[in-house]
Amino acid sequence: MSNFEIFEAYQRLLKNEQLSTPLVAILALTEMIEQSRAGTMFQLVKELKDGAGELNSKSPNSISLNAGCELFIEFITLFPHASASFEDLKKELIRQGRQYAEEALTYRAKIAELAFDFIKDDSVILTHSYSRVVMQTLLMAHKRKRISVFVTEARPRGLGIKTAEELQAVGIPCSVVLDSAVAYAIEKVDFVLVGSEAVVESGGLINAVGSNQMAIIAKAANKPFYALAESYKFHRLFPLSQYDLPTQKTHLLSFTQPRQPGTNPTDSESAKITQEQIAQNNPDVDYTRSRAKTAIAVTDGPQDRFLYELARGVEFLFRLGTSLKLPSPALFTAATWFHRFYLRYSMPEFHRQDVAASCIFLATKTEECGRKLRDVAKVYHSKAMGIDVMDIPSDSKDVDALQADILLVEEYLLEALCFDLTVESPHAHLVDLFSVAPDDTIVQDYAWTIAHDSYRTPLCILFKPQIIAAACYILAQCIVDGSNSLSLDARISNSAPSASLPTPPRIASSPDVSRLAVEYFAFNERDLCTLGDALSILLEFYSAQDETAYPYLASVVSIRPPSSISSIRRGFYTSFTQEGAGSHRHPVTTISERTPSSSHGGNTPIADTLV
Asked: What Pfam families does UniProt report for this protein, alphabetically (predicted)?
């Protein structure tokens, strides 16, 4: 092992204000590889882990640092050893580490572009402390929109003052708010926007201390609370409370020793409480539970391409599960897990087909419809290669490799799910709704089909299953009613439209079929707004599909989106034939190659709904 001082390298790299802590950690470990005398991968990984441990022990706030170290060491461990010599392999690892850090610097700009559509003109925004990604987002918004910003002072470090000074320097109206005055100022803001130190496995947020109370106040005031996070800040932590964070020290919030009676505290300067003493006795970060946040924006690439790849992955999952003759609940469970997995990991890290196969294999165990691992791998191989299962040799090495891949990804899948395997499907709520609805099999078939299609979108991780079920049923009603259909606004309004003639006294009014789903699930005003978002996402999804794959597509895309959707939600889907699609790194898929498709009316088994 060399005499390389990793903490000195870390401190030197940290002086670059453009580099966040995880990237500094990755570059420091990269320099460690460059100076390492290790002759094997085992020795190199051990040195890197020791170096990460040294950084952790010497850093006052090691959470985001650990996220970068874990990410890079995991990359090193899984990197294919195809080089001619170990020295060549080390050179390639150094190149990859520096290239990743360079590419990661572009993530803030990508997040700023995504967040731009969330910011309306004349928005008043509340932010906290100092965040590079938030600053870049606000600066981009200022170039094309009018915004005003409240920023908390973020005592005792006072980083909010730095934020205010930089914003005022570029002409953004800004006012510093006392940390204790957030509740006073919250009614003046449109939404809260903060950065992040880390995003943990539960979906919770670790950020500068004070973020949690801001989220609680924002939730009480019904104000959106958004966090911006680069993907390298995802951390393998599962805190249950503030005191489960790695930064928790026993001396935090400790009581000072009482003075002896009769002493005069003004007689000694040492008796005065300083800002530094307050800072040392208080935490630097806190933990915000996922239910307190409205959303987290993360990007590694174009959103429309990512959503398209998600849809293709779900299609492959359905094909695989259907060939294995799995019951529908197992398929829906696996599809939900598939979406939850990619909340944590990216497509370049794990291929969608490997993840789909692992979701299917795990679902066969939890849904009590067990299938042998070998059978899952053989069907996977047949679908991926387009060959018949019967033509695959019993001792196929390819199947052996796929078995290993499925088991490996299953470990990551369980971690991504935090071992929370419970899934609630919108189909179960549709069945309940059908039991009280008029016996209209056409509407029910359409609703069932749209519910299948919903798994090709992120709806299952964005909304409650009751919201999705209602959205599917309402769209089905609109399709069947055709040009005579009520608007979506009328179907999801707070109250039913008034009739032209009042109902005579002592005569019960007839049930309003157009509002059956809304009234059955007893949605409140907030639920109705969420329902509008779900409907708009489904309409966006269908508008980006091909009519040859969806026979009922023309009826769906002719439906006018509801006006009650969230005004700060950007569009999810764009057509891949639109200008600008060529900027994607992947080849653009033609309309005829698009997937997935669905069966008309839901009368066909799922196997026939997929290409």
From this structure: Cyclin_N, IF-2B
